[in-house]
Amino acid sequence: MSNYRTYTADDKMIELICENYHLLLVMSRFGLSMGFGDKTVKEVCETHEVDTNTFLAIVNFLQEGHSQIIDSPEKLSVLSLMDYLKQSHLYFLNFNLPTIRRKLMEAIDCSREDGIAYLILKFYDEYVHEVRRHMEYEDKYVFTYVNELLAGQKRENYKIEVFSRKHSQIEEKLSELKNIIIKYYNADASNLLNAALFDIFTCEEELLSHNMVEDYLFVPAVLHLENQILINQEEGNKKGGAE
Amino acid sequence: MKNNEQIRIAIAESSTIIRCGIVALLKRLPDLTIVPVEIGSMDALTSCFRAYAPEILIVNPTFEGGFNPTEFRSRLSTPKIKCIAMLSQLTDTTQLKQYDESITLYETVESLSQKILHLQHIAPQEDAINAETLSPREREIVVCVVKGLSNKEIAEELNLSIYTVITHRKNIARKLHIHSTAGLTIYAIVNKLVDLSEIKD
Question: How far apart, in Å, are the Cα atoms of A18 and each of A13, A22, A24, A69, A213?
Answer without folding.
Answer: 9, 9, 9, 26, 22
